[in-house]
Structures
1.
Amino acid sequence: MLAHIAEIIGGIAIVISISYLSIQVADSNWFLRSQAHYNGLTLVRAPAAMIIENPQLSSLISRCDIDDSDLKQADLVICDNFYLMQFNALEYLYCQNIDGSIPPELWSGASAYYDHEIKKSLATVYFGRKTPLPSLSHSIAIWTTPLVSRLATPKNS
């Protein structure tokens, strides 16, 4: 009789333990999604903060966006790295969106912003002299390469 009571108590303890673990896993998932959101915002904000804080960098990036043919190699390296930071942020957000780790609104806004940036300057100037960045993952390269190719190709008039 005592053994049956111990078995029942043991079964109840197992159910309680499993319930507690499921709550812990749900909390952990929420924390990871929150961290992914924060990381995405941090990556997106970094290039903008650099430009706001440094007027010389702002001027240089503006020159790169318009025409970088007369820039020194050292300035081109700065521009290349600045653009790479933007593509890294885009890639991170793209992959996190696929995983469902960031709010869809964040991806929607980011994809519209980066689409505009690619059309405005990255494709017309940067990719006019470069091939797509090799550091891009295959998934983000698939997303950007057709747009970049289309915009970097000279138009026949």
2.
Amino acid sequence: MTETGSTRKDGMSHGAPTSYRFDAREYDVEAREALLKACACATPMASAGVALAARVLDQFEYFTIVGDTPPDRSVSDALRQGALTCLEAALVAMDIAFQEGIPAYLMAMTRRDPTSGGLLGHAAYIYQNAAGLFGSLAFSRHALQGHRMAEFRSKEDVAISYAHSYVRLGLMPLCFGIADAAVVTDGLQWRTNAQHMACLHARLQETQEFALEVEFA
């Protein structure tokens, strides 16, 4: 598998990361209650940060997208309904694992089913630990497309690991992008506004400038 493409000039994928900021009050009341309940269930096993975020995602069901159109809802809507898409889960995990001054990234990847020709994708929150290594938090109906331990030397290596997993599943990864969360979410109230969530999805689609060339055995 090889990777081709070029970096963007608008800061979407590369460049100096921007500090991401989060305030739990930005979720609506019912969604915040659902999130706090999930955190309470997770805290006996994990107290904070990435470990807590991973456990919180386990408290929700996975929302399977029908067709190729994401649900018309905000993340607050998703939390109230108790089921999350991969992108919604990545955003929730990013909020929980957030630490002041630590850059946050969102990965988006598109894949094709060689049998049906259908296109879908995957999203993940990518973080960097104190040792400078990268890992991710992700939610999927495929176990292979879940979390990644912080053992990768670059954000792109994390993404490539998801591409390899797609190949193992018999699916064809086509392209991916990695966005600075503060840049790609700028001006969007995705936690409470469905239209803004749709806009974020479109922005992430635009970051996918790294094409993947895959050969199946």
3.
Amino acid sequence: MESALAISQIVFYWVFSLTIIILLSFRIIIMYRLVKILKTLQAIAGDIRDVSDEAKERIKEISEKLSLLPIFSFFMKKEKEKGSSKRKVEKDK
């Protein structure tokens, strides 16, 4: 009777230990994959930031080139004059 109880305890401890090892292995694998995914997302975010910076520069260049055209320069000058008149009023105060 005691040998059956001892064998059942040994089997229980082995099964429990293997279960813990398997669960920890799965957790390590999941964490490894999660880290890879996060690194990829970080790289994608950096690429998007770079592209948006380039787009801002190009939009600025295009607006400067358009301001040189006679048709668009009329509208661009009004915006600049409004801004400069506000600055003059603020300086006077």
4.
Amino acid sequence: MKQRLAEAENQLQQAETLSSRREEEKKEVEVLRRKIEQTDAEIEAIQDEQGSNFESEAELRRLKQLKKNYQTDLENKKKELDSLTKQAKNREKEQAKVDTLRASIAAKESETNAMEERLNQKTRPERVGKRAAAPKRGRPGDHPR
């Protein structure tokens, strides 16, 4: 049972690591969303300019490709975030198991301690009633007459 507890605690520690990774992924998703919005704004600005020249068209193609790359990265991050969320839920279930195991171990230890205490009480010599202590015998002349 203690081995199961140790394994569950190890999984709990991994859950904490996953949680921090999840938070990082969320931040990266937001960063990618902002980059996509900025790229869209740049694309619109170039398209709104009067006239068309080779440089602006090249810049437009570059920005569209950049946006596409950001969107791909965003989708991958979303998938990773979903995976981490699922793992976090599984870890929460593991935490419940850890709590249950800890409670079970504590109950068993309490029960064992109680049994040991009862056994210790049964093996101790019990005095039936209290009697006056008999005088100790010593060497002659040790006690007053």
